[in-house]
Amino acid sequence: MRSDTVTKPTPEMRAAMANAVVGDDMNGEDPTVNRLEEMCCKLFAKEAAVYCCSGTQSNQMAVWAHCHSGDELLIEAGGHIASFEGGAPAALSGVTCRTIPGRNGLLDLADLEGKIRADNQHLARTRLVCVENTANVGGGTYYSLSALERIGRWAHANDLRVHMDGARVFNAVIASGNSPAEICEHIDSISVCFSKGLGCPMGSILIGSKDVIYRARRARKLFGGALRQAGIVAASAVYALENNVQRMQVDHDNAKLFATEVAKIPGIKLDAANVQSNLVFFEVDSQLGNAAQLSYALKQHGVLMGATGGGRLRAVTHLDVTRDDMLAAAKILGDCVKAGFSDCPGTAAGPYARG
Ligand SMILES: *Cc1c(COP(=O)(O)O)cnc(C)c1O
Fold this sequence. Notes:
- By secondary structure, the protein is of the alpha/beta class.
- It contains 14 helices and eleven strands.
- 40% of the residues lie in helices and 15% in strands.
- It is globular and about 60 Å long.
- Pyridoxal-5'-phosphate (PLP) binds next to helix 3.
């Protein structure tokens, strides 16, 4: 339960990969990659798409495509692009990040208003707004269509672009009931991860206008991520879009069930009503020990969950864990807390410390 990135491809997915028709994607000649890109254009109602290696890569291709060196992007304080991609906006695009505290990882128009810097040679040029949907360290929360429309209209009226880090956008689709096209109506580019809840071994895609994707393709090559017979892995994504989207409701139901059980444990703070998708964050009473120690104790009993610094842990549901696993994990967590864990050495904290 430490991440939805740990899923392994099923025999059916592997069969689709083994049978994929392939070609040289850098020449635009891989039929399976082309099919995947066309499927995503249709789903998100955009002109173009480019398949690539990872969510970090698709996000950073977008930053490079939208911005120039010396530009600044606006992002929520816990945002992945600013905090968990190795400083890539600065390293790869010469772009600085202005981080803005939101609520549960989400921004609204009021958070952004007044943040565009004046046209003045002393100042970075504000160029891009990044929204994360669902918001990871925000707790798996999703944006309302009205908030996205407010942000998009304001950004475009002010000559800014909007990029959505949609690593888990299909979780937002399932949780909100909104279609991918509705979610992205006022968004200029969106990155999607195939290697999380969709269950693929790797891969991501960036979707947007022809102009943006043309530049993003240059970035993909520049960053060393242009591909050849990538249809073998793209076939896993085609398979996932056809088979693994609707089933994410099961992951959300499992997260809710786990959260409801864990909320009953004395010494654990968790608001089950706030669990909107497949991520469950909870806090352990500091009197009992810290999150790293609890994570260690859980590991001794076969339950893997990430400590995110301080007293906070993250549990993630996905297609390789079942409802029964959730009930068992909640029971083990209750037993560990009851038995005490303050003498445990503690595992190294994961990266998702509170922003
Ligand atoms: C996982 C994730 C990414 C992509 O990370 P990779 O390590 O490149 O797979 C991007 N954004 C968010 C919000 C994520 O959770």
